[in-house]
Protein 1
Amino acid sequence: MELRIRPSSRAGWTMSAFGVLAAGMGVVGLAAPDALIAAMGFAEAPAAGRADGDHTLTFLTASSMAALNMGVYYVFAAAADWTAFFRWTVPFRLLTCTVFTLAVLGDRAPTGFVGVGLWEGAGALATAVALRADRRRAAGESRTAAVPA
């Protein structure tokens, strides 16, 4: 099986871009967790350090590792042009957008966290639009190929 490096479809490009960004954010969270905390709008740890029982960094390590893994999966799926996977991600990324946005609206997360939800939602919509464009292009090519010369 040959693994291409570059995606061959519009939807693949959206997945690859999302994957690279997710993996990058995962690396930032692992290497510089306080930078990621600040970027998302969460309060930084006080100068005296974190309180006993504060597992923020543990949770951030787990989330960052998941983002890194997910990003790599997305890049590999894009390289393999795994269209079914692309379709599966759209509703779940929209669900993530909804849950994260509701967390902000419900005061469970700071306002800056809405950016994470919007990033997920925008990425899902971009992938959905690209999947539709890819389908239309493939349908046009198959009609053109079916017409005798």
Note: The CA atoms of residues 64 and 94 lie 20 Å apart.
Protein 2
Amino acid sequence: MDIDVRGPRFGAAVTTAVLAIVLVTSSEVLLAWQTLCFAVGATAGAQHPPYGLLFRTVVRPRIGPATQVESPAPPRFAQGVGLVFALVGLVGYGWGPEWLGMAATGCALAAAFLNAVFSYCLGCEAYLLLRRVAPARR
């Protein structure tokens, strides 16, 4: 079942704000929250994390039905990529070195920002590239 393209973009906007706060405050708790959101998105699908639920219940009823839809697979893969960066960030903030936490969080922030502002999903593009170069399964 395809998903509304505005949902992942909304989630990216919230993620951008959360990760920016993490960079300013070095909050492991807030990064742990974002890591959990990425984990839910990577395992259950991009429409299931808290930001997806917020979009479906609060935002979408106010902006109307979807005009464009997309496959949920690329955003789900992107959530997995975000999860990896968030986990590395947690390691850096929790056990050191702190620059590792800042760098990993900054990378995730940059990707979320690109999606939120320019509707360019790096993880989705990586997914599509991998699908093109990977041999077909039989």
Note: The CA atoms of residues 22 and 31 lie 6 Å apart.
Protein 3
Amino acid sequence: MAKIKKGDLVQVITGAKADRGGDRGKQGKVLKVYTDTNRVLVEGVNTVKKHTKVGQSSKGSKTGGIETVEAPIHVSNVAVVDPETKKPTRVGYRQEIVEKDGRERTVRIRVAKGSGKDL
């Protein structure tokens, strides 16, 4: 089970530093999680140039050229950001019993290991 979900604020913890052209230390929101390949798509991180074929739209304007898009990054290279300290942290779980429609259910709540706050 993945500990990183869509919409989480994550920070890149490996790779080259930003002053050397890398992404380490950058923070961004998770746009998509690829569970089959253990990768995540993070906003503003791991940007690559994509060359698309030049064509015409139905209105007659030119399309295509060189675009800058985000590429997926491996889950092990990012860490969830603690909402209290704004630093990367590990993720744990807490069990809580919730009563709904007269029935008790146990719910797993994600918790930041550093501060203990809910994610």
Note: The beta strands are 9-12, 27-34, 39-42, 47-56, 62-70, 73-74, 78-81, 88-89, 91-100, 103-112.
Protein 4
Amino acid sequence: MSVDAKPSPDVNQILDPSKALVPATVQLNEERVARGFLPKIRRVAARVPFAAEVLSVWWCARDPATPTAAKGMMMAALAYFVLPTDVIPDILPALGMTDDAAVIAAVIAIVGKNLRPRHKEAAKAFLAKLSKD
């Protein structure tokens, strides 16, 4: 790196975890997911190998028994899945959904203990219904 080059920004300032569960941020993520999740999952379910996991997270985030903090993180991950702009564009073959898969895997690792068998069963049933349509 040259003397004139800008130093990399501090990731902890950009991705401030304290803002992840701010009510306004959670509400924005919930609105994005409400508008875009079902249309996108219907479009991409056949080619996304982690569709069942995404749907499980979606059902868990909508479950009144899921803790609020877990819901906030799940909605953030689902909002990233829905957003048309990604770190890796979804239109790229083989690579396009890898960033989405990583985000979903990370949220499952963090709050996956809240995923219940009923969420996974609902996801499987939804995917079975989609495959029939």
Note: DSSP finds six helices and no strands in the chain.
